[in-house]
Design a protein that fits this description.
By secondary structure, this protein is an alpha/beta fold. The chain has a single domain, classed as FAD/NAD(P)-binding domain, CATH 3.50.50.60. Helix content is about 30%, strand content about 25%. It is built from eleven helices and 21 strands. The strands form three sheets. Strands 1, 5, 6, 7, 13, 14, 15, 16, 17 and 18 form a ten-stranded mixed beta sheet that branches. Strand 10 and strand 11 form a beta hairpin. Helix 1 packs parallel to helix 6 and helix 3 packs across helix 9. The longest helix has 25 residues. It is globular. It binds flavin-adenine dinucleotide. The site of flavin-adenine dinucleotide has 43 residues, from helix 1, strand 13, strand 18 and helix 9. The site of flavin-adenine dinucleotide (FAD) has 43 residues, from helix 1, strand 13, strand 18 and helix 9.
Length: about 450
């Protein structure tokens, strides 16, 4: 696969930045609730609050949708993120609640798109846990049992039965969810927010959170906001403040790349009739999805730990783009000559449980970190539930599922550079064993696989 002419973007490949970026805060304001961060999480929180009659100010460092909300793969998941077998082992009693939350979150986003008529190319295709080997297929079957027992809606089948490319062994279809253009979704949500009664300030980075006369004070370069309640919806950037609970999450940079447009007959020959987005069953997944512009967007495979704040604006490492291109050629051998056209990446927050979390730092400061690679569905839903909790004074059962009574978190394991490198190496070792077995079955000589 040719990676000679890749355009590297520091934003996203899905959309251009908005032309009407709002002005920064240049005054001192009072409000009932202030939301920090204008991703799909913070925007949903603000929108629900104004819907419930609250006086809301939202402060966003760049423009709403600038973060991972516009940069993700656009796969709206209907199952929890993380390692489901491990989650089941550690938190079996929580599984039904997590399944319910995941499916309701996806439906919540679908309803939002329909209600506001957001043109984001959404298609309710479902998504598949796709197996690249028999070993991964065994894992898929075990996961399917756990998910079904927890009340989730999934179907297991061969590649032909699921309508996914025949180079995969088979997989598990999450019936709920689908795929979209996440850039259009985020900027569509931004427009709904700008049309609402919320006061939105972009290019306004909150630099300090303090308390004065019983109220929370947010400091920004040109003005301050005094609020009765504050919601921190800053995703991977939460660690920039000392009020953030220790070990709340780890900032991780992940990337997506996009092929050049591919001839429709070549795409049709893949047998990808369902159009479902795919995630492999590696410890660090690869994802693949079709787009309406006849390209394939794919990514992740390697996690890059952010080591210091503020997190830098980054473009993907060409070495990783090269590696992803190699993996693509293995998964889609008939498209090995296709060129990579674009690459971009973003910061996500990984929690130690690999599940979304929400809670309170104090009576008047809430946090909501609904991410771990599944925030496209979960971040807007959790944001809405947080808003309801602020207004109603009690929590919906789905918010209760992920609520942290005390802001105390264990140190994340294997999330240092060395740990992440080791996880990556285990995935590559398994790929190499599977590649050798595949070749042996075909009667070919045992050669090193390309991935
Ligand atoms: C490459 C990639 C692929 C992904 N693929 C998927 C996928 O297919 N499916 C899925 O479900 N999820 C996916 N995700 C994860 C998903 O995108 C995120 O979980 C989700 O967008 C989180 O939304 P958010 O609003 O919490 O965060 P963000 O969109 O990151 O928003 C946080 C906002 O806070 C602002 N901010 C930060 N600090 C401050 C401050 N001090 N003052 C003011 N504003 C501040 C930032 O500028 C930013 O706009 C992916 C993520 C990436 C990066």
């Amino acid at each position: 696969m040719n990676t000679d002419h890749v355009t590297y973007s520091a934003f996203t490949g899905w959309v251009d930045p908005p032309a009407d970026v709002q002005g920064q805060l240049e005054a001192d304001l009072d409000c009932r609730v202030a939301v920090i961060g204008g991703g799909i999480n913070g925007m949903s929180t603000a929108l629900r609050l104004v819907e419930r009659g609250q006086d809301v100010v939202l402060l966003e460092a760049e423009f709403c949708g600038h973060g991972s909300s516009s940069r993700n793969a656009g796969q709206l998941a209907g199952a929890p993120g993380g390692d489901i077998q491990l989650l089941n082992l550690l938190s079996r009693k929580k599984m039904p609640g997590m399944m319910r939350l995941a499916e309701r979150a996806a439906h919540h986003v679908e309803d939002f798109i329909a209600k506001h008529d957001i043109d984001c190319e959404y298609e309710a295709t479902g998504n598949a846990f796709a197996a690249v080997s028999r070993g991964q297929m065994g894992r898929v079957r075990r996961v399917a049992k756990i998910v079904t027992r927890a009340g989730g809606h999934v179907e297991v089948g061969t590649a032909a039965e699921l309508g996914i490319p025949r180079s995969f062994v088979g997989g598990m279809r999450e019936v709920v969810g689908g795929r979209m253009n996440p850039g259009r979704f985020s900027l569509g949500m931004r427009q709904v927010l700008l049309d609402s009664s919320a006061r939105v300030f972009e290019q306004t980075k909150v630099t300090d959170v303090t308390r004065e006369a019983g109220r929370v004070v947010l400091t920004t370069p040109q003005g301050r906001v005094r609020a009765d309640r504050v919601v921190m919806a800053t995703n991977a950037f939460a660690g920039e403040w000392n009020i953030t609970p220790k070990h709340l999450s780890v900032p991780i940079y992940v990337i997506e790349v996009e092929t050049e447009p591919i001839a429709p007959d070549r795409l049709a020959a893949l047998g990808w009739t369902s159009g479902m987005g795919l995630v492999t069953q590696h410890a660090i997944m690869e994802n693949y999805r079709l787009t309406p512009r006849n390209t394939i967007v794919f990514g992740v495979r390697r996690l890059e730990r952010g080591t210091s704040y503020p997190l830098p604006e980054k473009v993907p490492d060409p070495g990783l783009v090269e590696e992803l291109a190699g993996a693509f050629a293995t998964r889609f051998p008939s498209l090995a000559d296709v060129k990579v056209q674009r690459a971009w990446g973003g910061w996500i927050a990984i929690t130690s449980s690999w599940l979304p979390v929400a809670g309170q730092v104090s009576d008047d400061i809430y946090y909501s970190i609904a991410c771990n690679g599944h925030g496209l569905a979960q971040a807007p839903y959790v944001g809405t539930l947080i808003a309801d909790a602020i207004v109603d004074g009690h929590r919906h059962e789905d918010l209760e599922t992920l609520w942290q009574d005390k802001p105390k978190f264990p140190a994340p394991m294997m999330m240092g550079r060395l740990g992440l490198r080791m996880i990556w190496a285990v995935d590559r070792f398994n790929d190499s064993v599977n590649g050798s077995r595949r070749n042996a079955r075909r009667g070919a000589p045992l050669v090193e696989p390309t991935s």
